[in-house]
């Protein structure tokens, strides 16, 4: 007997995705939601940059960069679900078997994807700040909102890294997650400053 295929969430209508997120099941989880929000933030940056082409010479390049970021982020959501699903399954199995090593490895994998999400979030927030500074003023709030969404994704991802590694603050990945969240916050603040 084979296991049923793992549930995928990409491509679900929004109302079904929201029902899955709010269900009593642990999947898709916070990492998935952070990646999807980040992907949407990159889309907002691309849109704001595209609208700015008439008045900003580098707008096409910024839009292309935002699109590339969105494409880089897209697989992270499902990869996070896969890593989280494996860790959750092993948490149940290994408690009975006492197999700490395979559980530790699974939790490290479950921390790796959120770290990638945090790294991408810094890139999105930084690009959003540039678009907010140089792009069409009519869409400045969209670029700022994208930076704020990216900051939230970075903070959520950093928290997941910390939790998945057992809050071992000495672990360099925990410190890296915190640093990335701080960098995303700085970029979001830079973007927000364009509104004053």
List the keywords.
196 residues; mainly alpha; Four Helix Bundle (Hemerythrin (Met), subunit A)
Top CATH class? Mainly Alpha
Q: Shape from CA axes?
A: elongated
Catalogue the unreliable spans. Answer: none
Q: Helix/strand/pairing class, anyone? A: mainly alpha
Question: What is the string of helix and strand elements?
Answer: HHHHHH
Query: Main β-sheet, in a few words?
Result: none
**Overall pLDDT score:** 91
Give the full name of the CATH homologous superfamily: Formiminotetrahydrofolate cyclodeaminase monomer, up-and-down helical bundle
The tally of beta strands, per DSSP, is: 0
Strand content: under 5%
Give me the CATH fold name: Four Helix Bundle (Hemerythrin (Met), subunit A)
Compute the number of structural domains.
Answer: 1
Alpha carbon gyration radius: 18 Å
Q: Please work out how many helical segments DSSP would assign.
A: 6
The span between the termini is 62 Å
Provide the helix percentage: over 70%
**Architecture, according to CATH?**
Up-down Bundle
